[in-house]
Fold:
Amino acid sequence: MDKYEKVFELAKRRGFLWNSFELYGGSRGFYDYGPLGSTLKRRIEQTWREFYVIQEGHMEIECPTIGIEEVFIASGHVGGFSDPLCECMNCKEAFRADHLVENVTDAAGTLSAEDLTKVIREKGVKCPECGGEFGEAYEFNLMFKTTIGPGTGRQGYLRPETAQGMFVDFQRLSRFYRDKLPFGAVQIGKSYRNEIAPRQGVIRLREFTQAECEIFVDPRNKKHPNFERFADRELALYSQKGQQQGETIRMTVREAVETGVIAHEVLGYNIALTNEFLTKVGMNPAKLRFRQHLKDEMAHYAIDCWDAEIETERFGWVEIVGIADRTDYDLKAHARVSKTDLYVYVEYDEPKMVTRFVVKPNMGKLGPLFKGKAKAVADALKQLSEEELSLSKDQIKVTVDGEELTVSSDVVDFAEETVKVSGENVIPHVIEPSYGIDRIFYGVMEHAFDEENVAQKAVESGLKGAEEVEKAEETKKELEAVKGESEGESEEEARLVMHFTSAVAPVQVAVLPLLTRKELADPAKEIVSRLREKSLLVNYDDSGTIGRRYRRNDEIGTPYSVTVDYNTLEDGTVTIRDRDSMRQIRAPINGIENMLYELIYRGRNFESAGKSFNF
RNA sequence: GCGUUGAUGGUCUAGUGGCUAUGACUUGGGCCUUCCAAGCCCAAAACCCGGGUUCGAAUCCCGGUCGGCGCACCA
Structure:
């Protein structure tokens, strides 16, 4: 069993992750989050909100998961989010149609499905597997299609990313932020892609959760006002150059921006912020790096793009966050399709006096001359440059609707004017951190997962019984030596632990009466309700021996366990057990809820929380 | 989508034409004055789906579904 299998086995067994529709045999690319999985996921999302919404001030919006066609025409998903496929009629194998004709025609990637079919027919391209004939090429679009309204309705698509919502709402958002750059907005929600072959568990799904942030900045100023916050933070950067040499370089954000490894401060700040977030939710910093997109994999409009990647045992380095400077591409695209200018008016510090060339058609004369066309002629005149106008003496030629017209120069005035300009319209650039929550969820699970040798652990933590354990281990080894190598793997007691950080652990405190007896259960239940009043996530468990319950809680990553025993009845104290060290302290019930709150949220030192206690 | 391989209680697994289908762990109920899965009693729980061959299929054959891997595809 590799780590992936172990993590998945635990996830299934303990209610983190289940295959969807299992009752009916399941369907690929869909997963259910069980009770603990849901909670863990929500806490990851909540931590993300704390970072982006509360700290960064990028407010959250919520748009429909179904989008109308125009949105995805503008975004390019209707045309571009698909691949031309072509199936062999003999062996049914599907191929990328553009790949098939790569060697027999130019610019195969730009051809339509129809053209591809034509080329395949003309050049007699045969199936590379069996030599069979090909059927027609067709576009396989990765978007789920649906119909809005009854009948044929209106074409709609399930959104393939949440980002478009922020772009479509740009004007409203701009108004909300009182038209002042920079501003940002986020969205956490489901997106859908009809993957041809979903694989790798929760790494590639057909329905998945994204947390995306779009930060609109002034393209002329990509400095970050709070850059100093992370400037000296060291990051593992796998830059374009680093990838050629195959090495990840550790350097500070400041260094990276100054030397041009990272394009600018805003991007640098957001990469560092991502690093901070991922560490907070429990990613192992040693298995985390930022990889820069290579020139040819970066979208043509992007200036710079970095992926946060985590190392997993089975899948290697997996992308979990993309942080890109998408420039003004998206806003321009929506402006074009919607025929609405999308910009922010930016006022200058000082109004500028600008000299410019102005053309003023005389409508009083143009009107009678050209009647209905007068407006179009005037517009055409306005488009002319100073040179064009001064070159043509008496007669000015313009083209309107393909028709060449001659206009006498006395119907138009032109002159240089000096005007006061106090600002200009700016199409913001977009910095986009885009998180794949499901992948992060898996990463958190895998990085938190640990199998420990209990005996060794006891020694490390100085627990009672450690010496006996050591002796027992020795005698065991001697026995094995006598027996020979036959049983290489002795039955070492293993402990499965999820080392969730307290920021995301789906259960924060377990309350355990030592025995299932009323006199112990009652005070335990009393503790439970007091912890719940502090909004702590509590698990009451009285089933099985105490050791078994500790292990159960280790497996679901409960950071602290409170045990009520007979001493509790005498002196009003309970034991608190720390998941990671397995150490215990004795603390009074009085104020226990505040104590645990401090341990969990205020980073209070465990040993300081009570008297060390060893059974 | 193709190839390959697998599918038995919650989990891991034995069985490969003739059962009432192993075993372990887990789980539930109870007992237990004491802390790291190992005490005692009791209980619950499975042959992926459809078709075929056969007197008889969990077992053989075909198809499907789901999982792993490789190819292809993809962020």
